[in-house]
Amino acid sequence: MMKKFVPNHVAIIPDGNRRWAKKKGMISFKGVEYGGSYEHLKELFEGLKDSGVKHVSVWGFSTENWKRPKKEIESVFKLIEKSIDKFRKDAFENKIRFRHFGRKDRIPRKIVELLDNLESDTKEFTDFNVQLCLDYGGRDEIVRAVNKIILEGLKNIDEESFSKYLDDSEIPDVDFIIRTSGEKRTSGLMPFQSDYAEFYFIDKYFPDLNSNDLREAIEEFERRKRNFGK
Q: Can 15 be counted among the known catalytic residues?
């Protein structure tokens, strides 16, 4: 039997929350609350873990999302604050490591403290890894990395050394990017780390995404031939 190659690192772009809410006659941030609820995310995480995935990164809030209505922005951070305790409980029961990718200088200080504590408290776990991309942008990540390099006074940088200054320096590059809602773009998610990533676009709004959809996506990944330029 041919060996199946499961993606080690899956990144999810959860698009379509607001359109889902509008379709159902709700105010826009209700889609964010439903799609980003911990109960929904937990189902997706468990589905990916059962498929053999070791790392999953979810884009929760981009650097451009600050342009959205204030009430919608506040709902995102309230949702995160509400979900952290639930995630913490599962993380300790199932040995899940958590990491935050993105800027820390613009999000509410209380949220930063909660995320930093969760990172610290789960740093010894290795069974499964969850990364939340919050106030994250691919270009912003690269600029922050360059500024770190400048501050350290380094002159000669290659790909390997540059990658150490990125947010995900401790984990493998992304293998598989999944975007919901039918939009066919990555919007700058992990541009440096996704040069050989496979892409999968699904015509479902994120609140409707379920573990069966992810299982089908993983099966599609397994059918693809990856040569990495060879």
A: yes
